[in-house]
Amino acid sequence: MARDADRTRRRLLAAATGEFAAFGIAGARIDRIAAAAGCNKAMIYAYFGSKDQLFGAAFTAHVAGYLEQVPFVAADLPGYAGRLFDYFEDHPAALRLSIWYRLERPQAAPLQAVVEVNQSRLDQLARAQRAGLLPARYDPAELLALVQSVSTAWASMNPEFGQAAPDRGRRRATVVDAVARLAAG
């Protein structure tokens, strides 16, 4: 039976994404990734080179999937905030993966996929501000940081806060309202 390299890479990326989301880069184990993917460790090194490169590939694949599910529309920041809230509520492992990325790679070489998506969003925000669709109170980087922070605010709360938190619908409505107020100036 012939090997299917693309299928093996996809299995490895899926297994790695789960492992990295659960344990971060430092805590992830190549043995567990290989076992979950149903292949040997040598395949990981042959396809990806190192654990860090595997993380980069897994995170890049995550970014691509995220972009398909959460379209960014600068002229509709409240809608984007609601979609972002929904995505991370429905995919908590994706939020953990993003947090691990920020925690463990602050000095690493930037991932091109992340650089490109950030630049695209900043350019869209700048155009929307020049067109008068968004206030210019905050520069595009500040505005994007605020929108993303508000959208993920509930996920960053301590677990003990959970009993006091409103239901998902109310949390989402709060996010959308807060971003609408931010976008209104």
SSE blueprint:
Elements: H1 5-27, H2 30-37, H3 41-48, H4 51-69, H5 77-90, H6 92-104, H7 112-130, H8 140-151, H9 168-184
Helix pairs in contact: 1-2, 1-4, 1-6, 3-4, 5-6, 5-8, 5-9, 7-8, 8-9
Uncertain segments of ≥5 residues (pLDDT<50)?
Answer: none
Distance between the termini: 62 Å
Total discrete domains: 2
Task: Tell me the β content.
Answer: under 5%
Alpha-carbon Rg, integer: 19 Å
Query: What CATH first level of the largest domain would be assigned?
Result: Mainly Alpha
CATH architecture grouping of the largest domain: Orthogonal Bundle
Q: Biggest sheet: strands, sense, closure?
A: none
Helix content: over 70%
Structural class, by secondary structure, is mainly alpha
**Looking at CATH, which topology of the largest domain would you report?**
Tetracycline Repressor, domain 2
Number of strands: 0
